[in-house]
Specification:
With about 675 residues, the protein is of the alpha/beta class. Helices cover about 50% and strands about 10% of the residues. Strands 12-11-10-13-14-15-16-17 form an eight-stranded mixed beta sheet, sandwiched between helices. Strands 1-2-3-4-6-9 form a six-stranded mixed beta sheet, sandwiched between helices.
């Protein structure tokens, strides 16, 4: 087996290189080899300093996630870091790519740090239901201000190299040859007195942190996830305990949390996203060229798709019905790019470069040179069929044609073309340039080239892709429509919108189903209900409450009234909605009873799980984990709960375990 850690000597400077592709994770073998090199270097008088670097595209990007939740394997990371920190010579971390989790903890144990100017640094353990377990909560606030440490540790988001330099996380940045700069820096360090270990320094600026205010804000944002609050508590322990005692407490907390149900659910979510749409990897067809992509329709969704494509580096040709509509589409795209700049997602230069690659026109000839065209017009079958028939007539035979429909039958749309193999669904989620989920809809005749194009596009856009077969609403909207319908039945049975929404928020959703409807607009689902009314089974129960709101012009936030009243500028319960619900209860002759929050969530989860099982049985979804990925990334299902299908399988596992214990 090839060595994962190498060492060479240059003029008294040891260069230790971790080479464990793809991300130089700190698995047991890497830790063991690294510790052996540290010990060997420590015993050599001719070595004056050491540079710790990584081969490949990144510095250490974290621990080996496959080891998490399992018994620790020796040597554990704290042992390795203690050896570096206690070394007689200075160690310098030379960082490129990302230094995340254990990678950043490794860098913190070094005497000093140098990085290239594109590197990123973070402690994302909270996103996996844990806290740093090798000194991250102890060393970090002794190197940078405590307020910055709180943001990094409890938020889990990485910081850029310039920010890292500004707060003291790194000592120098390098724009050219990182290794040469690191060796020169290490040579400087070798001639100086080695500074005190971080563990022997006080925390920086801890008195400036509003701990109570931080706790309130973090708890609200976490929505039931335990790790962010545990991370805050670990940081606060630095004020009460000596550093080395805080290290022990941190490790105990880390091991306890790594074995928790939330951490198990979050690891499942991580691997599910990594494996989503796995069938696409077996397709060997060559995808269409994605340098120039066409979009038909410049409304909110079309403009969002265009913005996403532009930010990925593509040129976009957008087709609208006339010049005025094309100008309006251009304005929407510019506004979306400006908003991306305002929230720090892209630089002003990148946004300017993106808009230079955007062309909106009523001339359909502009689309002919595009390898892929995405239709994003109004959700009406006749309108979309007309678009596809025209695209089939003008586009080259090897161009791929995609629809962004949320509900309509992709097979029926494909029938308008001579070659339905080049047609697929690409269901983006609004806002398309922000949301990370992309449902790739495989039609009855969708061919390999179209599917490989969808896969390549998802990768280019850095989106998580899930493959769906054709049915009304595909995976996500079909499940949402089912539990939305059942929530409306609960209104008939005695619940109220505010109670159902509160139960969902307490479970971990950012918003309840009625709040979501008000935000997106009640008219969207109303249009779908009207379109499918002729196919509805009259023998099945049907709630007219939502229809009555729409008929009364209550379409949600856009009209200041929906399930709630927004006319005062904030959301309030509306007695008129309660009156409509009560009248419909009387008309339906139902027996009204009270619901607990637990009963509400059990019903919602039950509907999600039954609909998910139906999707699997019908072959619409490829796996239960794909269904969970859709719900987690597209519909706000709380990530620390794993997903509805995960909960179904694990509740069964727990029940079987309890039964086995009784037997």
């Amino acid at each position: 087996m090839a060595s994962l850690v190498g060492c060479e000597l240059r003029d008294g400077i040891a260069i230790v290189t971790i080479d464990a592709p793809p991300v130089n994770a700190l698995g047991q073998s890497v830790r063991a080899e690294l510790l052996a090199h540290i010990q060997e270097i420590e015993g050599r008088a001719d070595i004056r300093a050491a540079v710790l670097r990584c081969a490949g595209r990144t510095f250490v990007a974290g621990a080996d996630i496959n080891e998490l939740g399992k018994p620790p394997l020796s040597p554990v990371l704290p042992e390795v870091l203690e050896a570096i920190e206690a070394a007689r010579i200075p160690w310098l971390a030379a960082i490129h790519g990302t230094a995340l989790g254990g990678g950043l903890e490794l860098a913190l144990a070094c005497t000093t740090r140098i990085a290239d100017n594109k590197a990123k640094f973070g402690l994302p353990e909270v996103t996996l239901g844990m806290i740093p377990g090798a000194g991250g909560t102890v060393r970090l606030p002794r190197l940078i201000p405590m307020s910055e440490a709180v943001e990094i540790v409890t938020g889990g988001k990485p910081v850029t190299a310039p920010h890292a330099l500004a707060i003291g996380l790194v000592d120098r940045l390098c724009e050219t040859d990182l290794l040469s700069a690191a060796i020169a820096f290490a040579t400087e360090l070798a001639g100086e007195l080695k500074p005190a270990s971080l563990l022997d320094r006080p925390c920086r600026g801890a008195e400036e942190v509003d701990w109570q205010g931080k706790a309130v804000a973090i708890r609200a944002k976490a929505r039931g996830a335990e790790a962010p609050m545990e991370a805050l508590d670990a940081l606060k322990e630095n004020l009460e305990l000596p550093a080395r005692e805080a290290l022990k407490k941190e490790r105990q907390r880390f091991l306890r949390m790594a074995a928790s149900e939330q951490a198990a659910a979050l690891r499942y979510a991580f691997f599910s996203e990594r494996n989503a749409g796995r069938s696409l990897t077996s397709i060997d067809s060559v995808p269409a060229d994605l340098w120039r992509i066409g979009v038909v329709g410049g409304g909110t969704m079309g403009a969002g798709i265009a913005t996403a494509l532009l930010l990925s580096g593509s040129e976009v040709r957008l087709l609208e019905r006339d010049t005025a509509a094309a100008e309006a589409a251009t304005a929407r795209v510019k506004d979306m790019l400006d908003a991306s700049v305002a929230r720090g997602a892209v630089s002003r230069d990148a946004a300017g470069n993106a808009i230079d690659r955007f062309f909106a026109s009523p001339d359909e000839a502009e689309l002919i040179s595009c390898g892929l065209v995405i239709e994003a017009v109004f959700e009406d079958m006749d309108v979309k069929r007309g678009v596809f028939a025209r695209l089939d007539a003008i586009m080259p035979k090897d161009a791929v044609l995609a629809t962004n429909t949320s509900y309509l039958d992709v097979n029926v749309l494909a029938e308008t073309t001579i070659n339905p193999a080049r047609v697929l669904g690409l269901h983006f989620f609004a806002p398309a340039h922000v949301m990370k989920l992309l449902e790739i809809v495989r039609g009855r005749d969708t061919g390999g080239r179209a599917l490989s194009t969808g896969a390549a596009l998802a990768k280019r856009l850095k989106k998580t892709s899930v493959v769906s077969g054709v049915c009304h609403g595909f995976i996500g909207n079909r499940i949402m429509a089912a539990y939305r319908r059942d929530c409306e039945f609960m209104l008939l049975a005695g619940a109220l919108p505010a109670q159902i929404d509160a139960a969902m928020r307490d479970f971990g959703f950012a918003m309840g189903i009625f709040e979501v409807q008000d935000l997106s607009g009640l008219d969207i689902a109303w249009a779908q209900r009207k379109n499918t009314a002729s196919a509805r089974d009259a023998s099945l129960p049907y709630s007219r409450i939502a229809d009555m709101l729409c008929e009364g012009g209550r379409l949600g936030r856009k009209t200041n009234k929906g399930w709630y009243d927004y006319s005062s500028g904030k959301k309030t319960d509306d007695p008129e909605v309660t009156r409509i619900i009560e009248e419909e209860r009387t008309s339906a002759g139902v027996t009204v009873h009270t619901f607990t929050d637990e009963q509400i969530m059990n019903r919602i989860l039950g509907v999600m799980q039954r609909e998910g099982q139906a999707l699997l049985s019908e072959g619409i979804a490829e796996s239960a984990s794909d269904i969970d990925v859709v719900m987690l990334t597209g519909y706000g299902f709380p990530r620390h709960r794993g997903g509805p299908m995960y909960l179904a399988s694990h509740s069964t596992d727990r029940a079987e375990g309890h039964q086995a214990a009784r037997d």
